[in-house]
Amino acid sequence: MEKTDNFALFYEKFKVEELLVYRNEAWSWSVRPVQPTLGAAIISLNRYAPSFSEVTAAEMAQLAEIHSKLENAVKIVFNHNIMNYLALMMVDHHVHYHAIPRYDGEREFAGNKWVDNGWPALPLIQDSQHSDDPKILFNIRDILAQTAS
After folding, report:
1. Contacts made by residues 45-54, CB under 8 angstroms, sequence distance 24+
2. Residue 106: pLDDT band by 50, 70, 90 thresholds?
3. Which end of the chain has fewer surrounding CB within 10 Å, N or C?
4. With the C-alpha atoms ordered 61, 94, 77, 18, is the resulting torsion angle positive or negative?
5. Domain assignment of residue 14, given as a range
6. CATH number of the domain within which 32 lies
7. What is the chain's Cα-based Rg?
8. How much is the pLDDT for 1?
């Protein structure tokens, strides 16, 4: 499989363009298609790289902007307690983070109740809350993008 195939498959799997919240020159922040907690996100490098050792210092500096915008927007909109960042890349061999907001109690958004089923331990990354309503992801994207801009 070519590098471009891995990159295209990653973008398709995580719907990076469709669920994009914010992008700078080096990184994209998009809503995670599977929501273990409200506002879960993917932060991905905008060019193909299979390992962190290939990320440049300039790209790492731009990552700080993404983290700041994400944490500030999620705090304002959903009032998370802390943000967990997971860079596993066991299945999807492209530099990216799963950003999982953590909550010590129930939240409500778009008429649905959201619970952090892993609190206060590790996030349950495979939880998929309210996946029966595809509009929810777009609602999350839109409110976070509006707040982050």
Report:
1. 45/94, 45/95, 45/96, 47/7, 48/3, 48/4, 48/6, 48/7, 48/94, 49/94, 49/95, 50/3, 50/6, 50/89, 50/93, 50/94, 50/95, 51/89, 51/95, 52/87, 52/95, 54/95
2. very high
3. N
4. positive
5. 3-148
6. 3.30.428.10
7. 15
8. 38
- Joined together, the tokens standing for residue 37 give 């907690």
Q: Which two tokens stand for residue 39?
A: 């506002």
Give 49-104 pLDDT, tens digit per residue. Answer: 999 999 999 999 999 999 999 999 999 999 999 999 999 888 898 999 999 999 99
Domain count for the chain, please give it. Answer: 1
Residue type, 83: M
For residues 86 and 96, give the distance between their C-alpha atoms in angstroms, rounded to a whole number: 9
Measured in degrees and rounded to the nearest 5, phi and psi for residue 17 equal: -70, -45
